[in-house]
Amino acid sequence: MRFILPCAALLALAALPPMAAAQEWPAAKPITYVVPFTPGGSTDTIGRVLANKLQEALKQSVVVENKPGQAGGIGASYVAKAAPDGYTLFGGTISTHAINASLYKNLAYQPVRDFEPVALVATLPNVLIINPALGVNSVAELVELLKKDPAKRMFASSGSGTSTHLAGELFGDLIGVKLTHIPYKGTPPALTDVAAGQVAFMFDQMTAALPLAKAGRVKLLAVTTGKRITLAPELPTMAEAGVPGFEMSSWQAVYAPKGTPRAVVQRLNAEITKALRQPDVQAKLHDQLGMDIVASTPEELAAHMAREIPRWAELVKKSGAQPD
């Protein structure tokens, strides 16, 4: 009897489902939310907003961890290799889950193969940002200056292969001027150098540019979307400003490693959707930072990627963009 009872107990434990034998998610340990860029940019802002809301909803710590580099590829590779247990999330972007697939020949991860889509969070307009000391007040004047002065043909970006990089490449292609790309490890240092006059201009998300513009440290000339935006209705589109054919928007999403349990993905999607509908989140992301909140289903995010990956592959090929 002394041997039968312990054996029976072990057999009963083995028969339990894995999630029941262990602590139910997310009780076991803190959740890590990986942001593949430096602190201060749009992806980081969204990550910290969602981390706080998820922490409240799930009653578990959610820690934001920044892993910048390779247009978000370093952070993406890290998450792609993480255990698919619901304890690692990823702040994906147009770069990590669309552009990188065609820009890098030996990408260490695959956007579709290695990730579970959780939610498309928001789309964001990019904006053409210049140093005020350039002395120009319109896109047309900037184009004229670039054609006349080779010393002003440097543009910054938040990293090679990002949408801000490709926006600059496309701009140069459409105006017929060979530009020099200066990549940075994230938006904040790139914007700092534009504001300081180290680099003439850049394209980046309205989220990051607006505070510096309000402070007079940079000047905004146009948005890259197909129509004007409510946050800055005075800004023309690039097409209206004299560069027809120029249209692009950035986007932000949440992913988990491939194989994460379906129930966990659905719970995360539900909590993220609830968070994005809360007035304080709407005020922060939409009213203050100009993001268009989407809050999609996992299936809608997968369909969005299926459209975006070939679209950006075509733009990468057309522009001749190369990772630096």
What is the molecular shape?
A: globular
> What is the CATH homologous superfamily assignment of the largest domain?
Bordetella uptake gene, domain 1
How many domain regions?
A: 2
Reading off the top of the CATH hierarchy, the class of the largest domain is best stated as Alpha Beta
What is the tally of helical segments? 12
Strand content: 15-25%
**Class from helix and strand fractions:** alpha/beta
Which fold name corresponds to the CATH topology of the largest domain?
D-Maltodextrin-Binding Protein, domain 2
Tell how many strands the DSSP assignment holds: 10
Overall residue-averaged pLDDT value: 90
Relative helix content: 40-55%
Distance between the termini: 70 Å
Order of helices and strands: HHEHEHEHEHEHEHEHEEHHEH
Known CATH architecture of the largest domain: 3-Layer(aba) Sandwich
Major beta sheet, specifics?
Answer: 10 strands, mixed
Radius of gyration: 22 Å
Low-confidence stretches: 12-22
Pfam families: TctC
Keywords: Receptor, Signal
Signal peptide: 1-22
Family: Belongs to the UPF0065 (bug) family.
